[in-house]
Amino acid sequence: xxxxxxxxxxxxxxxxxxxxxxxxxxxxxxxxxxxxxxxxxxxxxxxxxxxxxxxxxxxxxxxxxxxxxxxxxxxxxxxxxxxxxxxxxxxxxxxxxxxxxxxxxxxxxxxxxxxxxxxxxxxxxxxxxxxxxxxxxxxxxxxxxxxxxxxxxxxxxxxxxxxxxxxxxxxxxxxxxxxxxxxxxxxxxxxxxxxxxxxxxxxxxxxxxxxxxxxxxxxxxxxxxxxxxxxxxxxxxxxxxxxxxxxxxxxxxxxxxxxxxxxxxxxxxxxxxxxxxxxxxxxxxxxxxxxxxxxxxxxxxxxxxxxxxxxxxxxxxxxxxxxxxxxxxxxxxxxxxxxxxxxxxxxxxxxxxxxxxxxxxxxxxxxxxxxxxxxxxxxxxxxxxxxxxxxxxxxxxxxxxxxxxxxxxxxxx
Length: 413
Description:
Layout (H helix, E strand, L loop, with lengths): L4 E2 L7 E2 L27 E4 L11 H5 L4 E7 L2 E8 L16 E9 L4 E10 L6 E3 L5 E5 L2 E5 L6 E6 L3 E6 L5 E7 L8 E2 L15 E7 L5 E7 L3 E2 L2 E2 L2 E7 L4 E8 L5 E7 L5 E4 L4 E6 L7 E7 L4 E7 L3 E8 L5 E9 L14 E10 L5 E7 L9 E3 L5 E6 L2 E6 L10
Parallel strand pairs: 1-17, 2-16
Antiparallel strand pairs: 3-32, 4-5, 5-6, 6-7, 8-9, 9-10, 10-11, 11-14, 12-13, 13-15, 15-16, 18-19, 19-20, 20-21, 22-23, 23-24, 24-25, 26-27, 27-28, 28-29, 30-31, 31-32
Protein backbone atom coordinates (compact mmCIF):
# COMPACT_ATOMS: atom_id res chain seq x y z
CA UNK A 1 0.00 0.00 0.00
CA UNK A 2 1.18 3.50 -0.74
CA UNK A 3 0.84 6.87 0.93
CA UNK A 4 -2.43 8.58 -0.01
CA UNK A 5 -3.30 12.14 -0.90
CA UNK A 6 -6.38 13.67 0.70
CA UNK A 7 -8.64 15.17 -1.97
CA UNK A 8 -12.25 15.65 -2.97
CA UNK A 9 -13.21 12.97 -5.49
CA UNK A 10 -16.06 13.31 -7.99
CA UNK A 11 -16.97 9.60 -8.06
CA UNK A 12 -18.09 9.48 -11.68
CA UNK A 13 -15.26 11.60 -13.06
CA UNK A 14 -11.64 10.92 -13.89
CA UNK A 15 -9.17 12.85 -11.78
CA UNK A 16 -5.51 13.25 -11.06
CA UNK A 17 -3.97 14.32 -7.77
CA UNK A 18 -1.73 17.34 -8.07
CA UNK A 19 0.68 18.80 -5.55
CA UNK A 20 -2.17 20.98 -4.29
CA UNK A 21 -3.81 17.83 -2.88
CA UNK A 22 -1.23 17.62 -0.10
CA UNK A 23 -2.29 19.65 2.91
CA UNK A 24 -0.63 19.97 6.29
CA UNK A 25 -3.28 19.94 9.01
CA UNK A 26 -3.19 21.49 12.49
CA UNK A 27 -4.53 20.82 15.97
CA UNK A 28 -5.95 22.28 19.14
CA UNK A 29 -5.62 26.04 19.52
CA UNK A 30 -9.21 27.01 18.72
CA UNK A 31 -10.39 25.73 22.09
CA UNK A 32 -8.47 26.07 25.33
CA UNK A 33 -7.07 22.82 26.58
CA UNK A 34 -8.78 21.54 29.73
CA UNK A 35 -7.35 23.19 32.83
CA UNK A 36 -4.55 21.39 34.62
CA UNK A 37 -4.22 19.01 36.28
CA UNK A 38 -5.78 16.56 33.84
CA UNK A 39 -7.93 13.82 35.37
CA UNK A 40 -6.20 10.51 36.00
CA UNK A 41 -7.12 7.43 34.03
CA UNK A 42 -9.99 5.45 35.51
CA UNK A 43 -7.89 2.32 35.06
CA UNK A 44 -4.88 1.15 33.08
CA UNK A 45 -3.57 -2.12 31.68
CA UNK A 46 0.22 -2.73 31.56
CA UNK A 47 1.24 -3.93 28.09
CA UNK A 48 4.68 -5.39 28.88
CA UNK A 49 3.20 -8.69 30.17
CA UNK A 50 1.41 -9.07 26.82
CA UNK A 51 4.76 -9.23 25.02
CA UNK A 52 4.63 -5.65 23.78
CA UNK A 53 7.86 -3.73 23.29
CA UNK A 54 7.96 -0.13 22.11
CA UNK A 55 8.84 0.13 18.40
CA UNK A 56 12.08 1.71 17.26
CA UNK A 57 12.37 5.39 16.38
CA UNK A 58 12.07 4.32 12.73
CA UNK A 59 8.29 4.34 13.21
CA UNK A 60 8.37 7.95 14.41
CA UNK A 61 8.47 9.47 10.91
CA UNK A 62 7.90 6.47 8.61
CA UNK A 63 4.07 6.50 8.99
CA UNK A 64 4.12 2.69 8.92
CA UNK A 65 1.75 0.54 10.99
CA UNK A 66 2.85 -1.77 13.77
CA UNK A 67 0.14 -1.14 16.42
CA UNK A 68 -3.64 -0.81 16.65
CA UNK A 69 -5.96 -0.13 19.57
CA UNK A 70 -9.76 -0.35 19.31
CA UNK A 71 -12.84 -0.90 21.44
CA UNK A 72 -14.75 -4.04 20.50
CA UNK A 73 -17.57 -3.00 22.83
CA UNK A 74 -17.76 -1.18 26.16
CA UNK A 75 -16.21 -4.15 27.98
CA UNK A 76 -13.48 -5.31 25.56
CA UNK A 77 -10.45 -3.88 23.77
CA UNK A 78 -8.60 -5.25 20.76
CA UNK A 79 -4.87 -4.51 20.97
CA UNK A 80 -2.51 -5.57 18.18
CA UNK A 81 1.22 -4.99 17.97
CA UNK A 82 4.34 -6.12 16.16
CA UNK A 83 6.37 -8.91 17.76
CA UNK A 84 10.08 -8.82 17.00
CA UNK A 85 11.94 -11.96 15.99
CA UNK A 86 13.14 -14.03 13.06
CA UNK A 87 10.51 -15.26 10.62
CA UNK A 88 10.64 -18.37 8.47
CA UNK A 89 10.67 -17.53 4.78
CA UNK A 90 7.57 -18.75 2.95
CA UNK A 91 7.73 -20.65 -0.37
CA UNK A 92 7.23 -18.43 -3.44
CA UNK A 93 7.31 -15.30 -1.30
CA UNK A 94 7.57 -12.12 -3.41
CA UNK A 95 11.00 -10.48 -3.10
CA UNK A 96 9.53 -7.13 -2.04
CA UNK A 97 7.63 -8.51 0.97
CA UNK A 98 8.43 -6.96 4.36
CA UNK A 99 6.87 -9.56 6.63
CA UNK A 100 6.09 -8.89 10.26
CA UNK A 101 4.33 -10.85 12.98
CA UNK A 102 1.36 -9.07 14.53
CA UNK A 103 0.07 -10.34 17.87
CA UNK A 104 -3.63 -9.68 18.52
CA UNK A 105 -5.09 -9.84 22.03
CA UNK A 106 -8.61 -9.25 23.32
CA UNK A 107 -8.61 -7.57 26.73
CA UNK A 108 -11.58 -7.67 29.10
CA UNK A 109 -12.17 -4.42 30.97
CA UNK A 110 -11.37 -3.25 33.54
CA UNK A 111 -8.95 -5.97 34.72
CA UNK A 112 -7.22 -6.46 31.36
CA UNK A 113 -7.78 -10.22 31.34
CA UNK A 114 -6.76 -11.78 28.02
CA UNK A 115 -9.80 -13.61 26.60
CA UNK A 116 -8.35 -14.40 23.15
CA UNK A 117 -4.93 -14.24 21.56
CA UNK A 118 -3.44 -15.06 18.16
CA UNK A 119 -0.70 -14.03 15.75
CA UNK A 120 -1.08 -12.92 12.14
CA UNK A 121 1.64 -12.86 9.50
CA UNK A 122 1.51 -9.57 7.60
CA UNK A 123 3.47 -9.11 4.39
CA UNK A 124 4.13 -5.37 4.55
CA UNK A 125 4.17 -2.48 7.03
CA UNK A 126 1.03 -0.63 5.92
CA UNK A 127 -2.25 -0.40 7.78
CA UNK A 128 -3.78 -3.82 8.38
CA UNK A 129 -6.87 -3.29 10.62
CA UNK A 130 -10.05 -1.16 10.53
CA UNK A 131 -13.00 -1.15 12.89
CA UNK A 132 -16.39 -2.02 11.44
CA UNK A 133 -19.74 -1.97 13.29
CA UNK A 134 -21.04 -4.32 15.98
CA UNK A 135 -17.69 -5.51 17.29
CA UNK A 136 -16.32 -6.58 13.91
CA UNK A 137 -13.05 -5.64 12.24
CA UNK A 138 -11.58 -5.69 8.76
CA UNK A 139 -8.12 -7.27 8.55
CA UNK A 140 -5.85 -6.96 5.50
CA UNK A 141 -3.22 -9.50 4.52
CA UNK A 142 -1.56 -8.36 1.30
CA UNK A 143 -4.47 -8.06 -1.21
CA UNK A 144 -7.04 -10.02 0.78
CA UNK A 145 -9.53 -8.64 3.33
CA UNK A 146 -10.94 -10.70 6.19
CA UNK A 147 -13.53 -10.02 8.89
CA UNK A 148 -12.89 -10.88 12.52
CA UNK A 149 -14.42 -10.25 15.94
CA UNK A 150 -13.45 -10.96 19.54
CA UNK A 151 -12.84 -14.59 18.60
CA UNK A 152 -9.95 -13.36 16.39
CA UNK A 153 -10.85 -15.94 13.76
CA UNK A 154 -10.36 -14.61 10.21
CA UNK A 155 -13.31 -15.07 7.87
CA UNK A 156 -12.72 -14.32 4.16
CA UNK A 157 -14.41 -11.10 3.05
CA UNK A 158 -12.99 -10.14 -0.35
CA UNK A 159 -9.78 -10.35 -2.35
CA UNK A 160 -8.35 -8.55 -5.35
CA UNK A 161 -6.24 -9.86 -8.18
CA UNK A 162 -4.41 -6.53 -8.29
CA UNK A 163 -2.35 -4.74 -5.59
CA UNK A 164 -4.57 -3.19 -2.93
CA UNK A 165 -3.50 0.45 -2.51
CA UNK A 166 -5.97 1.88 -0.01
CA UNK A 167 -8.89 0.93 2.25
CA UNK A 168 -11.35 3.35 3.87
CA UNK A 169 -14.38 2.87 6.09
CA UNK A 170 -17.23 5.39 6.15
CA UNK A 171 -18.05 7.01 9.53
CA UNK A 172 -21.21 4.89 9.94
CA UNK A 173 -19.29 1.73 8.84
CA UNK A 174 -21.81 1.03 6.07
CA UNK A 175 -19.42 1.62 3.15
CA UNK A 176 -15.92 0.43 2.31
CA UNK A 177 -13.58 2.03 -0.22
CA UNK A 178 -11.11 -0.27 -1.97
CA UNK A 179 -8.46 1.16 -4.28
CA UNK A 180 -6.46 -1.22 -6.46
CA UNK A 181 -3.55 -0.65 -8.81
CA UNK A 182 -4.04 -1.96 -12.31
CA UNK A 183 -1.02 -3.96 -13.46
CA UNK A 184 -2.20 -6.01 -16.41
CA UNK A 185 -4.64 -5.68 -19.29
CA UNK A 186 -8.34 -6.30 -18.63
CA UNK A 187 -7.80 -7.48 -15.05
CA UNK A 188 -10.46 -9.11 -12.92
CA UNK A 189 -9.84 -6.43 -10.31
CA UNK A 190 -12.24 -7.36 -7.55
CA UNK A 191 -13.33 -10.93 -6.94
CA UNK A 192 -16.44 -12.26 -5.19
CA UNK A 193 -18.59 -9.15 -5.37
CA UNK A 194 -22.35 -9.48 -4.92
CA UNK A 195 -24.52 -7.99 -7.64
CA UNK A 196 -23.71 -6.07 -10.83
CA UNK A 197 -21.42 -3.01 -10.82
CA UNK A 198 -23.04 0.36 -10.31
CA UNK A 199 -21.19 2.07 -13.18
CA UNK A 200 -19.51 1.02 -16.43
CA UNK A 201 -16.10 -0.62 -15.99
CA UNK A 202 -13.27 1.90 -15.61
CA UNK A 203 -10.84 2.43 -18.46
CA UNK A 204 -7.09 2.87 -18.35
CA UNK A 205 -6.16 4.94 -15.26
CA UNK A 206 -3.82 2.96 -12.98
CA UNK A 207 -5.79 3.22 -9.72
CA UNK A 208 -9.32 1.79 -9.67
CA UNK A 209 -11.69 2.90 -6.89
CA UNK A 210 -14.58 0.70 -5.73
CA UNK A 211 -17.10 1.75 -3.06
CA UNK A 212 -18.92 -1.25 -1.59
CA UNK A 213 -21.73 -1.80 0.88
CA UNK A 214 -20.25 -3.47 3.93
CA UNK A 215 -23.06 -5.96 4.48
CA UNK A 216 -23.61 -7.12 0.88
CA UNK A 217 -20.25 -6.27 -0.74
CA UNK A 218 -22.22 -4.75 -3.60
CA UNK A 219 -20.40 -2.04 -5.60
CA UNK A 220 -22.33 1.24 -5.36
CA UNK A 221 -19.82 3.50 -7.15
CA UNK A 222 -16.65 3.34 -9.20
CA UNK A 223 -13.97 5.79 -10.27
CA UNK A 224 -10.38 5.85 -11.39
CA UNK A 225 -7.44 8.14 -10.73
CA UNK A 226 -3.71 8.43 -11.19
CA UNK A 227 -2.90 8.07 -7.48
CA UNK A 228 -4.55 6.58 -4.37
CA UNK A 229 -6.77 9.20 -2.71
CA UNK A 230 -8.92 9.71 0.38
CA UNK A 231 -12.67 10.08 -0.22
CA UNK A 232 -14.68 12.12 2.34
CA UNK A 233 -17.73 9.83 2.53
CA UNK A 234 -20.88 11.14 4.18
CA UNK A 235 -24.28 9.41 4.40
CA UNK A 236 -24.86 7.84 0.97
CA UNK A 237 -22.42 10.06 -0.91
CA UNK A 238 -19.29 12.14 -0.59
CA UNK A 239 -18.12 15.75 -0.28
CA UNK A 240 -16.10 17.87 -2.67
CA UNK A 241 -15.03 21.50 -2.85
CA UNK A 242 -15.15 23.38 -6.13
CA UNK A 243 -13.78 26.89 -6.79
CA UNK A 244 -16.18 29.84 -7.00
CA UNK A 245 -15.04 33.48 -7.23
CA UNK A 246 -12.27 35.38 -5.40
CA UNK A 247 -10.94 32.64 -3.11
CA UNK A 248 -14.44 31.35 -2.43
CA UNK A 249 -15.22 27.64 -2.54
CA UNK A 250 -18.49 25.74 -2.74
CA UNK A 251 -18.63 22.66 -0.48
CA UNK A 252 -20.96 20.24 -2.23
CA UNK A 253 -22.55 16.93 -1.31
CA UNK A 254 -22.66 14.41 -4.15
CA UNK A 255 -24.86 11.38 -3.48
CA UNK A 256 -23.93 8.19 -5.29
CA UNK A 257 -27.41 8.37 -6.80
CA UNK A 258 -29.20 11.67 -7.29
CA UNK A 259 -28.35 15.33 -7.74
CA UNK A 260 -25.48 17.20 -6.12
CA UNK A 261 -26.23 20.11 -3.82
CA UNK A 262 -24.22 22.88 -2.17
CA UNK A 263 -23.93 22.69 1.61
CA UNK A 264 -21.97 25.86 2.29
CA UNK A 265 -19.57 28.41 0.84
CA UNK A 266 -16.20 29.13 2.47
CA UNK A 267 -13.29 31.47 1.87
CA UNK A 268 -9.84 29.90 1.55
CA UNK A 269 -6.46 30.64 -0.02
CA UNK A 270 -5.90 26.88 -0.49
CA UNK A 271 -8.07 24.03 -1.67
CA UNK A 272 -10.26 23.19 1.37
CA UNK A 273 -9.92 19.75 2.93
CA UNK A 274 -12.99 17.81 4.07
CA UNK A 275 -12.85 15.26 6.89
CA UNK A 276 -16.12 13.52 7.72
CA UNK A 277 -16.45 12.79 11.44
CA UNK A 278 -19.95 11.28 11.44
CA UNK A 279 -22.56 10.18 8.91
CA UNK A 280 -23.89 13.75 8.73
CA UNK A 281 -21.12 16.10 9.98
CA UNK A 282 -17.84 17.04 8.29
CA UNK A 283 -14.92 19.28 9.16
CA UNK A 284 -14.06 21.68 6.33
CA UNK A 285 -10.52 23.01 6.81
CA UNK A 286 -9.55 26.24 5.07
CA UNK A 287 -6.54 28.57 4.83
CA UNK A 288 -7.07 32.19 5.91
CA UNK A 289 -5.54 35.08 3.99
CA UNK A 290 -2.70 35.58 6.46
CA UNK A 291 -0.69 33.16 8.60
CA UNK A 292 -0.20 29.43 8.33
CA UNK A 293 -3.00 28.29 10.66
CA UNK A 294 -6.25 26.78 9.41
CA UNK A 295 -9.89 27.61 10.06
CA UNK A 296 -12.06 24.57 10.77
CA UNK A 297 -15.80 24.65 10.03
CA UNK A 298 -18.05 21.84 11.32
CA UNK A 299 -20.86 21.56 8.76
CA UNK A 300 -23.82 19.18 8.71
CA UNK A 301 -25.76 17.73 5.78
CA UNK A 302 -28.32 20.55 6.00
CA UNK A 303 -25.53 23.07 5.42
CA UNK A 304 -25.60 24.41 8.98
CA UNK A 305 -22.27 25.42 10.53
CA UNK A 306 -22.26 23.88 14.01
CA UNK A 307 -19.02 25.53 15.16
CA UNK A 308 -15.82 27.13 13.89
CA UNK A 309 -12.30 27.13 15.30
CA UNK A 310 -8.74 28.08 14.34
CA UNK A 311 -6.18 25.28 14.55
CA UNK A 312 -2.42 25.69 14.54
CA UNK A 313 -0.20 24.66 11.64
CA UNK A 314 2.60 23.39 13.89
CA UNK A 315 0.62 20.15 14.26
CA UNK A 316 0.98 17.74 11.32
CA UNK A 317 -0.04 14.29 10.04
CA UNK A 318 -3.56 14.06 11.50
CA UNK A 319 -5.40 10.83 12.21
CA UNK A 320 -8.95 10.37 13.50
CA UNK A 321 -10.97 7.87 15.51
CA UNK A 322 -14.75 8.23 15.40
CA UNK A 323 -17.46 7.14 17.80
CA UNK A 324 -19.91 5.00 15.86
CA UNK A 325 -22.92 6.89 17.23
CA UNK A 326 -21.64 10.21 15.84
CA UNK A 327 -21.23 11.89 19.22
CA UNK A 328 -17.46 12.40 19.39
CA UNK A 329 -14.20 12.15 17.51
CA UNK A 330 -10.62 11.76 18.68
CA UNK A 331 -7.96 13.63 16.73
CA UNK A 332 -4.23 12.94 16.84
CA UNK A 333 -1.40 14.97 15.34
CA UNK A 334 2.32 15.41 15.85
CA UNK A 335 3.54 18.65 17.38
CA UNK A 336 6.61 19.98 15.58
CA UNK A 337 9.01 22.66 16.65
CA UNK A 338 8.07 25.07 13.84
CA UNK A 339 5.40 25.57 11.19
CA UNK A 340 5.68 23.04 8.36
CA UNK A 341 4.83 23.77 4.73
CA UNK A 342 3.78 21.25 2.10
CA UNK A 343 7.32 20.63 0.82
CA UNK A 344 9.23 21.04 4.10
CA UNK A 345 11.12 17.95 5.34
CA UNK A 346 10.24 16.40 8.70
CA UNK A 347 12.71 14.36 10.74
CA UNK A 348 13.00 13.11 14.31
CA UNK A 349 14.50 16.38 15.51
CA UNK A 350 11.39 18.29 14.37
CA UNK A 351 8.87 16.23 16.37
CA UNK A 352 8.08 17.09 19.98
CA UNK A 353 5.06 14.94 20.86
CA UNK A 354 1.93 13.18 19.66
CA UNK A 355 -1.12 14.95 21.04
CA UNK A 356 -4.58 13.35 21.06
CA UNK A 357 -7.74 15.31 21.83
CA UNK A 358 -11.35 14.17 22.22
CA UNK A 359 -13.98 16.56 20.80
CA UNK A 360 -17.76 16.70 21.03
CA UNK A 361 -18.94 16.76 17.42
CA UNK A 362 -22.00 18.91 18.10
CA UNK A 363 -20.22 21.72 19.94
CA UNK A 364 -16.52 21.39 19.16
CA UNK A 365 -15.72 21.34 22.89
CA UNK A 366 -12.42 19.67 23.72
CA UNK A 367 -13.12 17.14 26.47
CA UNK A 368 -9.72 15.56 27.07
CA UNK A 369 -6.11 15.90 25.87
CA UNK A 370 -3.37 13.31 26.28
CA UNK A 371 0.07 12.70 24.82
CA UNK A 372 0.67 9.21 23.43
CA UNK A 373 3.98 7.45 24.04
CA UNK A 374 5.76 6.26 22.10
CA UNK A 375 5.00 8.71 19.31
CA UNK A 376 3.59 6.93 16.26
CA UNK A 377 3.14 8.89 13.07
CA UNK A 378 0.62 6.34 11.73
CA UNK A 379 -1.66 6.79 14.75
CA UNK A 380 -3.93 3.91 15.80
CA UNK A 381 -2.48 4.01 19.33
CA UNK A 382 -5.70 5.50 20.75
CA UNK A 383 -9.41 4.63 20.53
CA UNK A 384 -12.96 5.79 21.23
CA UNK A 385 -15.70 3.40 22.32
CA UNK A 386 -18.64 3.04 19.88
CA UNK A 387 -20.87 5.23 22.08
CA UNK A 388 -18.15 7.83 22.78
CA UNK A 389 -18.26 7.18 26.54
CA UNK A 390 -14.70 5.82 26.88
CA UNK A 391 -11.31 6.81 25.53
CA UNK A 392 -8.20 4.63 25.50
CA UNK A 393 -4.61 5.59 24.72
CA UNK A 394 -1.26 3.84 24.79
CA UNK A 395 1.17 5.78 26.97
CA UNK A 396 3.98 5.15 29.40
CA UNK A 397 3.89 1.37 29.06
CA UNK A 398 0.15 0.93 29.60
CA UNK A 399 -3.22 1.31 27.97
CA UNK A 400 -5.00 4.06 29.89
CA UNK A 401 -8.81 4.14 29.82
CA UNK A 402 -10.81 7.27 30.62
CA UNK A 403 -14.55 7.45 31.21
CA UNK A 404 -16.18 10.49 29.58
CA UNK A 405 -19.45 12.22 30.50
CA UNK A 406 -22.33 11.95 28.00
CA UNK A 407 -21.91 14.14 24.94
CA UNK A 408 -24.42 17.01 24.77
CA UNK A 409 -27.36 16.61 22.42
CA UNK A 410 -27.28 19.50 19.95
CA UNK A 411 -30.40 20.46 18.02
CA UNK A 412 -29.79 20.32 14.28
CA UNK A 413 -26.66 18.18 14.53
